[in-house]
Amino acid sequence: MNSLTLALIGAAMVLAGYALYSKFLAEKIYALDDSRPTPAVMLDDGVDYVPTNKYVLWGHHFTSVAGAAPIVGPAVAVIWGWLPAFLWVTIGTVFFAGMHDLGALWASIRNRGQSIGALSGRYIGARGRNLFLVVIFLVLLMVNAAFSVVISNLLVGTPTAVIPTWGALLVALAIGQAIYRLKWSLPLVSVVGVVALYGLILLGDNVPLALPETVLGLPDRSVWIILLFLYAGVASMLPVWMLLQPRDYINGLQLFIALGILYGSVLIARPEVVAPAYNTNLPEGTPSLVPLLFVTIACGAISGFHGMVSSGTSSKQLAKEGDARFVGYFGAVGEGLLALGSIIATTAGFATLAQWEDTYQAFNDGGVNAFVQGGGRIVEAGLGLPQSLAATIIATTAILFAATTMDTGVRLKRFVIQEIGQIAGVNLNRMLATVIAVGVGLALTFGAGADGSGGMRIWPLFGTTNQLLAALTLSIVTIMLLRRGRSPLPTLIPLVFLGAMTIYALLVQLGTFWEQRDWLLLVLDIVILISALWVIVEAFIAMKSARAYPGDDDQELALEMEAVAAGSAPRRGGSSTGQGHPQEGTPPPAP
Amino acid sequence: MSQPPQPRNRLAEVVAGLREFYAGPYRQTFARAQQDEDDLFLVIVLAEALGVPNPASYYTVELLPVVYDQFHDWHRRMGMDRSPLDHFSCC
Q1: What is the ipTM metric for this complex?
Q2: Is residue A248 situated within a structural domain?
Q3: What residue ranges are annotated as transmembrane (chain A) (predicted)?
């Protein structure tokens, strides 16, 4: 199979999904209606609720949901062969991810832009909401631990990426100053920022940096992990304009450039896929394809995190209901294309099957390093760049995504810890809460040993937790459809499949952790398992009652909106800063 | 028939889109920071009214009418339906 054929078939499948299936969903299932005012229009406060151009909003949505996960998941999952990963990414994007992200947006805009957490309280009950809090805390914890390991492996494996990775921080700091202090125009800053970033990549390619193998008795990977957590802690405490905002912006631009480079190279070089379609020569210790494939590739097929972004921020900015199809479904298509790029890089980027098998010697061995190696070779062949430069570009891209997610993750975890402190009657200041957030992440990463392997071993648990979040979102959307008397099948079938695979995977892992006597992961697994069963029972009860007593949610909403229009909600200009809206919180991170 | 957009307008649209892409995700964070600053300013201006001796009250008293609307928003935001100050009844 040629990689270009694979790319074209994959792209055609997801684009056909957008053209046909999303149209069906938008018209028949979710019944999007442009004449119905969206929360952004009704509650416009210039802060959270702002009607936004759909292309800009798609850019926000896509860069928020696209992180390291759509790269890492497929790069690990191709160990079973390229075909299972390809099928799950394409079919998953069309029938699972697009439907889920669009559904989360729809559920939120029909409920005054409320987030999935708030909606779970409304449709599944207070216990559903508590469950949501447990799951979200676990997801944040795992994201930080796993991504620190991903980045440290990349820094050790690609020493040429060290300068651009840390130099990107200086570029972001300079951009923040240029915009806010020197008042440079944004287009100029963007060009200068991107040129500076690529200048650093060139510099890094010529000056590789590596730590000594052991520093103070710790292996180099562990030192990078500690440094990354320290960075994330400091970054999360700095004012956002200084570092996080310009950094996210440059990363967003870099995401589009890198995707263009990768697909452009596939188009020119057309390398052959050397990996087998279905790998019968699996390394020892590789878990079974069913169910692990469906939790290993989360982002890129279906991810609960997307529902949080959709309902948390994107839903408050939709100018028209019809835009939800483009923003929600096409956002998932973008993520699917990123995952497809990862599959192509890790299966077609190797010269021979032997070389590929050499990289994939054990489950989790391939991962993002295989993406960097393979992607680097494709870019080298396509654009004629030197191999090490191509690998540096791909490695820097992957690191920047993961690092952005890490610092935002620590920031969000700090908020959660401060809130828990408030509930417990302890006033935790910013510094102390950050220290706790970083400490818990480090403890989990080093829980399995001084080499930080605990961070990566929990990756399959991240998958199951994330899928649990998706199941929660899908059950809310299903209940809403039942209450309107519409067919729930487009959401119910994926929900049943996802629920079954998640529980199956949790049970398989439970056995593994028991055999390994890994108590920390065992306890986490049990917590997630109980939560998953809890979701199923609660959702089943709620669905039964929704089916028995269908009511028109939209009518309830119309009454609420009338009350809002009568003056009890904030409007633009009414309050200088627009307080009082139901949903607050910083934009969520992008796994 | 609608006119095709002029190049200048299109460029302006691109710049506006770029700006929105830069600022959008952090709009709320900045609004909150701005509010904190406004609240601090309000407290300084109202220091005398709150019973805190303020050496700059000669200057800040002039600003009382300016913060009048803000004060109303502030006490509503803090969960007080009516003004907490007897001699400063905005509602």
Answers
A1: 0.80
A2: yes
A3: 85-109, 130-155, 161-179, 186-203, 223-244, 251-269, 289-309, 329-354, 389-410, 431-449, 461-482, 489-507, 519-541
Q: Is residue B51 part of a domain?
A: yes
Shortest distance between the Cα of B15 and any Cα of chain A, in A, equals 7
Could you say which residues from 247 to 276 on chain A have a Cβ atom under 8 Å away from some Cβ of chain B?
Answer: 248-249, 252
CATH number at residue A56: 1.20.1740.10
Tell me whether residue A488 is in a domain.
Answer: yes
DSSP state of A80: G
Backbone CA torsion sign across B41, B45, B48, B50: negative
**B43-91 per-position pLDDT tens digit:** 888 888 778 888 888 888 888 888 877 888 888 888 888 877 777 777 7
Q: Does some domain include residue B63?
A: yes
The answer to whether residue A580 sits within a structural domain is: no
Cross-chain CB nearest to B17 (options A53, A241, A580)? A53
Residues of A in contact with B25 (CB under 8 A): 60, 64, 245, 248, 313, 587
In B, minimum Cα distance to A579 occurs at B77
Inter-chain residue contact B24 with A187, CB threshold 8 Å: no
- Into how many domains does chain A fold? 1
Q: In this structure, are residues A373 and A359 in contact, taking their beta carbons and an 8 Å threshold?
A: yes
Q: Taking CB atoms and an 8 Å limit, are A576 and B77 in contact across chains?
A: no
Structural domain for A184, as ranges: 3-566
How many structural domains are present in chain B?
1
Question: Residue A296 and residue A466: Cα distance in Å, rounded?
Answer: 10
